[in-house]
Amino acid sequence: FPFAQKTVVFVLGGPGSGKGTNSEKLVKDFGFVHLSAGDLLRAEQQRSESQYGELIAHYIREGLIVPHEITIGLLRNAMMDHPDCDRFLIDGFPRNIVQAKAFEDMVCKAKQVLFFECPEATMLERLLDRGKTSGRTDDNIESIKKRFRTYVNDSKPVIDEYAREGKVITVSCKGTVDEVYKVAHDNVAALLQ
Ligand code: UP5
Ligand code: MG
């Protein structure tokens, strides 16, 4: 499988910053396949034969980063399910420096990083609101605080590192869904030219 010939864009940002919302729209406009690492982990957790169900459930509730071998395995398999697609949006991954290096070694380098910049207060408000209906085990105040801690300590440094490499497009999450998406859309359109 020719991973190296694929265009991979990482979609990063804190919990509730709008990664999923914008990725779904980019799929429609640009023909990406959207792979949310969190969604893949939640699906694996639900799979009755999975040997990782309990482990994943624990890491997600605690806002911790699942060992990267599991996540990269799921991402690779999901990419191989789309052999004819050459554009992938990988949402919510990598979440620490070790994961980023491992993905580069085992899969490929990302072309660009789309970073949704969002103040914690806004993310908190959106997550608590979503938590009323999402059914996610981590959309409660205790888990959200832990997710924020992991983001600051482990995940933001990955974005900073990519920024030093000149790979980051920053999109402010301030504004309506449509306003934020317009900025994301225009940046991705320019990138794909
Ligand atoms: N919303 C969005 N944009 C809005 C706007 N402009 N105005 C008003 N409302 C807006 O958005 C969140 C909410 O805000 C939604 O209700 C939306 O309608 C609204 P969403 O697009 O869902 O944000 P997103 O960034 O996708 O938030 P999510 O909660 O999915 O981010 P997380 O990074 O926390 O979650 P993820 O699913 O990626 O990971 C969950 C857990 O899985 C992690 O904590 C970790 O334990 C584990 N994980 C790993 O271990 N390894 C990985 O590689 C990935 C995940
Ligand atoms: Mg998401």
Describe it for me?
This protein is of the alpha/beta class. The protein is 56% helix and 14% strand. Strands 2-3-1-4-5 form a five-stranded parallel sheet, sandwiched between helices. It is globular and about 45 Å long. It binds P1-(adenosine-5'-P5-(uridine-5')pentaphosphate and magnesium ion. Its cofactor is Mg(2+). Residues 129-139 are annotated as: LID. It is an enzyme of class 2 (transferase). Monomer.
Cα-atom Rg, whole angstroms? Answer: 16 Å
> Helix-strand pattern, N to C?
EHEHHHEHEHHEH
Structural class, judged by helices and strands? Answer: alpha/beta
Apparent shape: globular
How many helices? The count is: 8
Cofactors and ligands: P1-(adenosine-5'-P5-(uridine-5')pentaphosphate, magnesium ion
Read across the widest sheet, the strand sequence of neighbours is 2-3-1-4-5
Total beta-strand segments: 5
Overall pLDDT confidence: 97
Low-confidence stretches: none
Largest sheet: 5 strands, parallel
Strand content: 5-15%
Residue share in helices?
A: 55-70%
Terminus-to-terminus distance = 25 Å
